[in-house]
Amino acid sequence: MAKAAFRIEHDSLGALKVPAEALWGAQTQRAVENFPVSGLAMPRAFIRALGLIKATAAQVNAGLGRLDAARAEAIAVAALEVAAGRHDAQFPIDVFQTGSGTSTNMNANEVIAHLAARRLRQKVHPNDHVNYGQSSNDVIPTAIHVAGALLVHDRLKPALKQLAGTIERRARQLKGVTKTGRTHLMDAMPVRFDQELSGWATQIRHGLERLDAVQPRLLQLALGGTAVGTGINADPRFGKRFARALAARTSLRFVAADNYFEALSAQDAAVELSGQLKTIACSLMKIANDLRWMNSGPLAGLGEIELPTLQPGSSIMPGKVNPVIPEATCMVCAQVIGNDATITVAAQAGNFQLNVMLPVIALNLLQSIELEASVATLLAERAIAGFRVRRAHIGEALAKNPILITALNARIGYEKGAAIAKQAYQEGRPILDVAAQATGLPRAELARLLDPEKLTHGGVEA
Question: Does the pLDDT at position 391 exceed 90?
């Protein structure tokens, strides 16, 4: 006989057909059928967090005498398999589902119950055992914080540190190279490459500080508040013990929320973290666009640097090479900024005791972290680490830069300097030649006063 394609599962609404090989039950199946919206499942980082939460909760409840040790151990083993990604195919529910994420919480409960029952060879109930002392209303906000904190720690901060370190290394290598500075995209006073790159590195270092600043709120967990923040059906000791146990498991300093009513009804910490990610996106886009401008040309643009050649740049123009990594970076930044707008709108949906746009907050927040981590690594390794400076071209443009005349303001005044600069522009002559002719100052003295490298040190000529 052919193997049955379906089995019958039951929930509080009645019987339902479920694919025979599926580990989930009736509530997951209902959600699969109710929300055929986008085809986007909850992110891997979120499922990992759910697994860690369920494993830790079971062990804490056993320690409190609320769950028998055998069931708790079976649940913990199954949940850690979920956290490790061994059952990702069993989480098919669309992101655009019930706003509390109840469907995904029950998906986890049903899968873990099925796995635990198989291991234990006795009944494990998704609600009574796996979800004991919990509600979707505190599990899902907790999962957002746990997933976000782990991704920031494991992926984003290391990537940003690598990027900052790569920029700083290149700055040291290029310390002696002076170039034309630019404001409004127009020629300005000279700067050294190490000075320009130090600005980039500081942006990234400040981004790391911003991520650290959000940690006191991000590491606060809603679990223990259950349905509305009162902690109904949970042991009063559960929330704090859970946070301590999860902190020990992950090495992150998770704590129980200061106020469960805030933790369930608002997503302010997610908004705060997203805002920091948006700021980092602005930093990355500034750096990427600087690289694009510096690389432009190479003949008709600025042509200050040559980025590594990674792939052909055109399907019709032979020999063309484009700044593909900075372009990818800019697109990531645009996505992160858009994600922040979604998170901002979704976080306003905290009506009374519960936010009801939690899954879309999770999707966008975790995507932003993952995207920034990935592209920061690419920017470091495939753009900044290997670009070559076109020193001769930079030196030629710098010698003709009329704005160098600014260094003589104290000697000849602004008006005379402006006239000299205008003449140098019109005649296409080096500023030194025009200044020597117009001021009567000795050429040697002018060469000293207008030395581009010297001007990068600032100050006023005595």
Answer: yes
